[in-house]
Here is the input.
Amino acid sequence: MGEAIESGAAADGTSVPPPAAAECAELRAALAQAEENLRQQREQYLRAAAELDNVRKRAQRDIEAANRHGLEKFAAELLPVKDSLEQAVQTGSRPTPGRCGRASRRRCSC
Here is the structure.
């Protein structure tokens, strides 16, 4: 099995004609075309993968920005509520005079 096959001789001892030069040139051209096609397909794949990665990153940034904007808007809407509550606490801690003129923490029923 380790015998080298000489040009023009098959393994069973019959004679095989050498490939024609035109056929070799045709096969080489087909191989070159296939390699070029492979290169182009690989380049398209890499570009598509990079674009997909960019889209994912962009979507993640957009989600984070929307969350941040929503949180900022919510906090801005809560500021007047906080101010009102602070004012109510301050007002509630001061004695208020009743109708009778006495200062009391509770309103008198006079």
Q: What stands out?
A: DSSP finds one helix and two strands in the chain.
